[in-house]
Amino acid sequence: STHEIEDLGGKVYEIREKRGRIFFEGNEELIPKINYCARTLERLMILLENRNIEGLEEIYSSIKKIDFGFIKPEQSFAVRALRIGRHGFTSLDIAREAGRAVIDSYMESKNVRLKVDLDNPDIIIRVDLIHDELFVGIDTTGDDALHKRWYRIYTHHAPLNTAIASAMIKFSGWSIEKALLDPMCGGGTIPIEAAMLARNIPPGKRREFSYFAMLGKVIPDVEERAVNIKITGIDRFKKHVDGAVENAVNAGVIDAITFTQGDATQIGETQIGDIDVDTIVTNPPYGLRIGSKKSVEELYRGFLLNVKRLLDTGSTVVVITPYKQMMRRMVNELGYEIMDELWVRYGNLDTTIFKMRI
């Protein structure tokens, strides 16, 4: 994500991994550019306040000091609050106090009472309290986070977050001249994100953003690339394969991807033909639904053994899993080299992305 921000023109000055936040500086042009083009980010906020606080009263007083002159008198606003940690109040309490502070601040400076519209506001103010740290910002993205792509008409029961999928692809170092394989592709997220990345298709196409209310409907000019790529997606279940095809058609990249049915532990030339696969990026099942870690271990082992038979020495395998110790033990037993690891908070799970070499 840091590299992506800098590639788009931002100047990163602080990274807070455990808080899930990257702080950077940039000009106004970055707001539409990042919202429209960023693949690995969730949301872009303009930071108004960041400080440690002790209670609701301090949240109110901190927000009341902010200049909300960027909101036009005729525009409506809403507060969206997030609370993580142990507190004697709820996120609804935070939203109420923050909303009151915005209204009072604006009334004092403009002598106008701002309209509140919780369903369809012109301006969204984000108020996040993470333990004792307060973040207040203008949400330039909107209620739908950036990972919500337009192409998903079929939803797998455990869909991979598209921002994480894109991060995994970039983490792998995949070159578009080489073939990419996802042998447990589910609804096709990794193959589709890889094709969109290779062809420079903006993930922000076909959607509205909150920044429109501030800057107008500014859409960056992005030149898409018509390149030939070889991507294969495989899944055990036909309904997921069919769903992945639907999603790829909707994304406009079905010509770049071959989807087929197969077992990740038994993949052979029947599934991938004569394509010389160089990189595997995949999100194996976590087994949380069936509650069997043993079956997950058998799947991982079978998959990794099969990959060693299938791919040449020096090929790259990238996997995301909540079972960090199990994966480390297994890849060492099977003779893989761990090149890098990346910690990712995925929903309520602590997961690790492993980059391995055969």
Task: Describe, in plain words, how this protein is organized in 3D.
This protein is of the alpha/beta class and 358 residues long. It has two domains: 2-139, VC0802-like, CATH 3.30.2130; 162-205 and 223-357, Vaccinia Virus protein VP39 (Rossmann fold, 3-Layer(aba) Sandwich), CATH 3.40.50.150. It has helices at 2-7, 30-37, 56-64, 91-110, 162-172, 189-198, 212-215, 238-251, 269-272, 293-310, 324-333; strands spanning 11-16, 21-25, 45-52, 76-84, 115-116, 123-130, 133-139, 179-182, 231-235, 257-261, 277-282, 316-321, 337-346, 349-357. It has a seven-stranded mixed beta sheet with strand order 10-9-8-11-12-14-13, with helices on both faces. A hairpin with a 4-residue loop joins strand 1 (11-16) and strand 2. The mean pLDDT is 92.
Number of helices: 11
Quick one: biggest sheet?
A: 7 strands, mixed
CATH architecture of the largest domain: 3-Layer(aba) Sandwich
Rg from alpha-carbon coordinates = 23 Å
- Return residue spans where pLDDT drops below 50 for at least 5 consecutive residues: none
Order of helices and strands: HEEHEHEHEEEHEHHEHEHEHEHEE
Features:
358 residues, alpha/beta, VC0802-like, Rossmann fold, 2 domains, 7-stranded mixed sheet, 5-stranded mixed sheet, 11 helices, elongated
Task: Sum this structure up briefly.
It is built from eleven helices and 14 strands. It has 358 residues and is α/β, with parallel strands linked by helices. β1 and β2 form a beta hairpin.
